Amino acid sequence: MKNYKITINGKTYDVGVEEADGGVEVKSVQAAVSAPKAAPAAPAPATAPAPKAAAAPKAAGSGDVTAPLPGTVLSVAVSEGQQVKAGQVLVIFEAMKMENEIVAPAAGTVKKVHVSKGAVLETGTPVVSIG
């Protein structure tokens, strides 16, 4: 059995590896008691930018809500003329084998629905116009 020290994200692990039947098999993994090395401190900017929210649909100047990533529309939850609240689900689409929701960025009235069930979305595709 061979022992190795592996450092991942500043944390060191002792790993025991044994070769068996032509393959390699990990026998043990233990965290070593070693403090991670501190990175040199960078001077802080005068004002740090606020953290950005997770990828949310963009509301363009005309009130268009756009697709945040490519996918396929599974359902449209609103219709033209309908009043919507901020955060209300407008469209559910599939991307990367996961269901995702596109929500209203602000309250308003649905002026136009640009997509229907089965439509293929590209990043930035207008989905719904809210006024």
TrEMBL record:
It holds the Pfam family Biotin_lipoyl. Residues 49-60 have a biased composition (Low complexity). Residues 37-65 are annotated as: Disordered. PROSITE patterns: BIOTINYL_LIPOYL (PS50968). The keyword ATP-binding does not apply. Residues 45-131 form the Lipoyl-binding domain. It comes from the Bacteria. Keywords: Biotin. This is Biotin-requiring enzyme. It comes from Sporobacter termitidis DSM 10068.
